[in-house]
């Protein structure tokens, strides 16, 4: 058996399969309890159409969920998880 | 000298009783007549005339019982053990002549009696002439000897043949002429058809005159005509489903069949019975025709819509006959016998079921017949694991088929589990009650649903199953076959949404969007790399999935070779840069790559999974691998590795030199050719214990093919024993139970790779 007579080449076009996920420290949104990699109850499409946002407290939520939450708060705008004042992370 | 009144009476009685004897009154003359009248007046004067009638009737009955009856039946006694047709025919004619003579004799007596006593006021109010017919029927034709029936049958059959021969225009074009006449079956030169017909008319006339024509001939004539009808329908209507015969048959009956009846029952006594005869024959005609159709109903159903004329005929026949329940049980059995066994493909069963739905809703719009006959089919389809898949495949096929046409009609589904009551729907004025044989447990609305897709979904009664199966197929097309025509899929999805509702198909919508998004991301990444004049080592076309919206995907442990991993990592970085805060989880065992192998001067191209590529790549550095060792390098399980190696074995690149050691094959067959092969499609991207198991069984298939090639045919148990001996030895192959093996072989029969006959399996040729 001559090893040099057996050669292996890649040809262009590897259809590779992956799934995307948010880099977050939790699996589910603390407000709607839905998975981050899915979407909030008001949305149909995940990802670009229903993104996550992070607060300065480092908690993160579906953007639609936290905006709804903040709108419902009349006096102070607090993070629903840690009760600190909510500020969007840059 | 005065005679005493007793003497006078006695003399008158002698005159009357002498003259009322059948033989005596033959030579009636004026003198006798006068004498008779005088005698009658004598009796009348003494109020004794009523005795005459009673005496005459009593004497007639005695005569029939003791003399005429036995003499008449004597004609037929002689026929026992007789084989000559002509003897039967001759005796019948003679017996009719005899009875006719007797009747004539009695008729003159009766005329004489009736001339003096206007209407018999005895026991019955009928006159004596009609009484005598009743006596014939009650006394002589009370029971028949077998030979009489045979005679009548033979006589009318011969007459029928002759009648038919004379009344049909001869088609002697080209046909070789037989020396015998078709009618009388005597040499043509001495044909007696004409004479036979003359005798025939005279016999009928005599019987009619006697008043027993229908009594004597009815059964024979009916049976002759019945077999004529049967043979006409058998030769003319059977096998042709594309013509309606209904009107034609009725016309044929009136012109061809009734002509013969008219010629028999031409006499005045029996002429009235023809219309009743026609009614009975018409009924028999419809029944025979319907039976012929019912017998072939399975084929008629399969041939629908070409066979619509036959279905419509049958519908009319059902209204006129009482064959509905027979039709139902016969078709149900035919469907079971012809379709419901392992050798028939699910698609064949489905298309038969669809034909049944379409044709039977024409036959019986209420849907009761369909519901009953297709019940075993539905039950069986429920038990077949690939039914939903076949239906969905039909629905998603390119081009057009019955189901697709139905789908484009875009009606919403009518499901059995819909709770609204059927009384709400529709107009009460057009409401029709369900037939009495309808199953009360199903609603008439679901039964009448004319929509085929609804009927198919109702096999399961749930939309979810169908949508899930569609999702599975879509996944398969995207991840395994890589032949997803996006425009078509999107159009198709819109159609399905109309049918199954938006929410059911939401997941599929996201899946299609993932494919489109992936394309965009890929080209963005290629563009950005081109800007900085970079290029990936291996061109990657990523399919990036939103995992929550796809069916659970098959997991498999594998560590890809370094250069492959490096390319994936590079791609991940570009993705992260593009989509902030998001990253990728690769599924290295899924997807497909094109590779080229240079082996002893031969170039071979393959499209295989990355895992297959990773395996064959290892043989570049080392031509001989132990399974355990290789599984350690690739960090995959031995059994999974073995399954994958099977592919390279069938490609002729690897062989198992000694158990658990694989080596490169020195010479690859088909040198100098460039071969492109796609990996066996059966390997799905989706997780399924069933499919996993199927792959494991597939390893055994190689062994089974080997066995059957060498030994030709084997029973199930032998195959199992041999597999245990040879194939289930190593630690890397699993066990297979007898029932599981049988299921596996059954599937191979359906795939037409095996045949099963009288207990043994063979390879299909
Ligand atoms: Zn949320
Ligand atoms: Zn949202
Ligand atoms: Zn917080």
TrEMBL record, chain A:
GO terms for molecular function: cullin family protein binding; ubiquitin protein ligase activity; zinc ion binding. The keyword Lipid biosynthesis does not apply. Keywords: Cell cycle, Cell division, Metal-binding, Mitosis, Nucleus, Ubl conjugation pathway, Zinc, Zinc-finger. GO terms for cellular component: anaphase-promoting complex. It is found in: Nucleus. Residues 40-83 form the RING-type domain. Coiled coil: none annotated. Pathway: Protein modification; protein ubiquitination. InterPro entries: RING-box_E3_Ubiquitin_Ligase (IPR051031), RING-H2_APC11 (IPR024991), Znf_RING (IPR001841), Znf_RING/FYVE/PHD (IPR013083). Gene3D superfamilies: Zinc/RING finger domain, C3HC4 (zinc finger). It holds the Pfam family zf-ANAPC11. Its main location: nucleus. GO terms for biological process: anaphase-promoting complex-dependent catabolic process; cell division. The keyword Kinase does not apply. PANTHER family: RING BOX. Together with the cullin protein ANAPC2, constitutes the catalytic component of the anaphase promoting complex/cyclosome (APC/C), a cell cycle-regulated E3 ubiquitin ligase that controls progression through mitosis and the G1 phase of the cell cycle. The APC/C complex acts by mediating ubiquitination and subsequent degradation of target proteins: it mainly mediates the formation of 'Lys-11'-linked polyubiquitin chains and, to a lower extent, the formation of 'Lys-48'- and 'Lys-63'-linked polyubiquitin chains. The mammalian APC/C is composed at least of 14 distinct subunits ANAPC1, ANAPC2, CDC27/APC3, ANAPC4, ANAPC5, CDC16/APC6, ANAPC7, CDC23/APC8, ANAPC10, ANAPC11, CDC26/APC12, ANAPC13, ANAPC15 and ANAPC16 that assemble into a complex of at least 19 chains with a combined molecular mass of around 1.2 MDa; APC/C interacts with FZR1 and FBXO5. Interacts with the cullin domain of ANAPC2. Interacts with UBE2D2. Belongs to the RING-box family. This is Anaphase-promoting complex subunit 11. It comes from Patella caerulea. The lineage of its organism: Eukaryota, Metazoa, Spiralia, Lophotrochozoa, Mollusca.
Automatic annotation (TrEMBL), chain B:
One of its GO terms (biological process) is metaphase/anaphase transition of mitotic cell cycle. Residues 453-649 form the Cullin family profile domain. The keyword Cell cycle applies. Coiled coil: none annotated. Signal peptide: none annotated. Residues 421-444 are annotated as: Disordered. GO terms for molecular function: ubiquitin protein ligase binding. SUPFAM superfamilies: Cullin homology domain (SSF75632), Winged helix' DNA-binding domain (SSF46785). One of its GO terms (cellular component) is anaphase-promoting complex. It holds the Pfam family CAA_C. It comes from the Eukaryota. SMART domains: APC2, CULLIN. Keywords: Cell cycle, Cell division, Mitosis, Ubl conjugation pathway. InterPro entries: ANAPC2, ANAPC2_C, CAA_C, Cullin-like_AB, Cullin_homology, Cullin_homology_sf, TPR_ANAPC2, WH-like_DNA-bd_sf. Belongs to the cullin family. PANTHER family: ANAPHASE-PROMOTING COMPLEX SUBUNIT 2. This is Anaphase-promoting complex subunit 2.
């Amino acid at each position: 058996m001559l090893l040099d007579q057996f050669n292996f080449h890649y040809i262009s076009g590897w259809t590779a399969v992956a799934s995307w996920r948010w880099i977050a420290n939790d699996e589910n949104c603390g407000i709607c309890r839905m998975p981050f990699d899915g979407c909030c109850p008001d949305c149909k499409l995940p990802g670009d159409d229903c993104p996550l946002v992070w607060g300065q407290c480092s908690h993160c939520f579906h953007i639609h969920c936290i905006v709804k939450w903040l709108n419902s708060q009349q006096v102070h705008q607090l993070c629903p998880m840690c009760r600190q004042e909510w500020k969007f992370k840059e | 000298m005065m005679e005493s009144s007793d003497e006078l009476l006695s003399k008158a009685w002698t005159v009357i009783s002498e003259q009322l004897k059948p033989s005596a009154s033959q030579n009636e003359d004026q003198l006798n007549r006068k004498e008779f009248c005088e005698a009658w007046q004598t009796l009348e004067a003494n109020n004794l005339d009523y005795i005459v009638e009673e005496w005459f009737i009593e004497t007639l009955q005695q005569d029939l019982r003791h003399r005429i009856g036995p003499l008449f039946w004597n004609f037929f006694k002689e026929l026992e053990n007789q084989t000559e047709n002509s003897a039967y025919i001759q005796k019948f004619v003679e017996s009719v002549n005899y009875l006719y003579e007797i009747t004539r004799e009695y008729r003159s007596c009766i005329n004489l009696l009736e001339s003096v006593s206007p209407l018999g006021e005895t026991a019955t109010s009928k006159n004596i002439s009609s009484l005598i017919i009743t006596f014939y029927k009650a006394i002589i034709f009370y029971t028949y000897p077998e030979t009489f029936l045979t005679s009548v049958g033979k006589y009318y059959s011969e007459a029928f043949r002759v009648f038919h021969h004379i009344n049909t225009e001869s088609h002697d074009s080209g046909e070789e002429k037989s020396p015998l006449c078709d009618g009388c079956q005597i040499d043509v030169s001495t044909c007696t058809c004409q004479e036979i017909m003359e005798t025939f008319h005279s016999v009928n006339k005599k019987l009619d005159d006697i008043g027993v024509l229908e009594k004597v001939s009815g059964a024979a004539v009916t049976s002759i005509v019945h077999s004529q009808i049967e043979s006409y329908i058998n030769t003319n209507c059977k096998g042709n489903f594309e013509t309606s015969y209904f009107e034609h048959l009725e016309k044929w009956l009136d012109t061809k069949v009734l002509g013969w009846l008219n010629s028999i029952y031409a006499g005045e006594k029996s002429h009235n019975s023809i219309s009743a005869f026609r009614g009975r024959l018409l009924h028999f005609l419809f029944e025979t025709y319907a039976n012929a159709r019912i017998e072939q109903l399975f084929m008629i159903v399969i041939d629908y819509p070409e066979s619509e004329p036959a279905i419509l005929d049958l519908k009319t026949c059902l209204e006129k006959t009482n064959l509905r329940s027979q039709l139902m049980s016969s078709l149900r059995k035919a469907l079971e016998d012809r379709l419901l066994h392992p050798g028939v493909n699910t698609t064949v069963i489905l298309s038969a079921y669809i034909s049944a739905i379409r044709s039977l809703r024409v036959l019986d719009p209420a849907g009761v017949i369909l519901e009953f006959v297709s019940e075993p089919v539905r039950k069986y389809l429920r038990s077949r694991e690939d039914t939903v898949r076949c239906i969905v495949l039909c629905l998603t096929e390119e081009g057009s088929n019955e189901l697709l046409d139905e789908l484009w009609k875009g009606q919403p589904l009518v499901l059995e589990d819909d709770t609204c009551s059927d009384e709400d729907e529709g107009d009460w004025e057009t409401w029709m009650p369900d037939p009495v044989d309808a199953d009360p447990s199903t609603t008439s609305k679901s039964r009448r649903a004319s929509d085929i897709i609804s009927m198919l979904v109702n096999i399961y009664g749930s939309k979810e199953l169908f949508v899930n199966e569609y999702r599975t197929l879509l996944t398969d097309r995207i991840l395994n076959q890589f032949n997803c025509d996006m425009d078509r899929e999107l159009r198709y999805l819109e159609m399905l949404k109309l049918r199954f509702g938006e929410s059911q198909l939401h997941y599929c919508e996201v899946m299609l969007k993932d494919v489109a998004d992936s394309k965009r991301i890929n080209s963005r990444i290629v563009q950005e790399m081109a800007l900085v004049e970079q290029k990936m080592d291996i061109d990657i076309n990523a399919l990036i999935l939103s995992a929550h919206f796809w069916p659970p995907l098959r997991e498999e442990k594998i560590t890809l070779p370094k250069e492959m991993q490096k390319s994936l990592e590079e791609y991940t970085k570009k993705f992260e840069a593009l989509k902030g805060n998001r990253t990728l989880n690769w599924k290295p065992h899924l997807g497909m790559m094109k590779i080229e192998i240079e082996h002893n001067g031969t170039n071979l191209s393959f499209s295989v999974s990355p895992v297959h590529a990773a395996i064959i790549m290892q043989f570049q550095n080392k031509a001989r691998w132990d399974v355990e060792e290789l599984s350690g390098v690739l960090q995959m399980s031995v059994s999974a590795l073995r399954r994958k190696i099977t592919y390279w074995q069938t490609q002729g690149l690897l062989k198992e030199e000694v158990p658990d050691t694989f080596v490169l094959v020195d010479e690859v067959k088909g040198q100098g050719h460039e071969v492109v092969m796609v990996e066996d499609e059966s390997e799905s991207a989706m997780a399924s214990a069933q499919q996993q198991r199927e792959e494991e069984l597939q390893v055994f298939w190689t062994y089974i093919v080997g066995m059957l090639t060498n030994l030709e045919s084997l029973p199930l148990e032998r195959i199992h024993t041999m597999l245990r001996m040879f194939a289930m030895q190593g630690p890397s192959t699993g066990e297979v139970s007898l029932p599981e093996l049988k299921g596996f072989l059954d599937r191979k029969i359906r795939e037409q790779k095996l045949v099963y006959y009288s207990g043994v399996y063979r390879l299909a040729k």
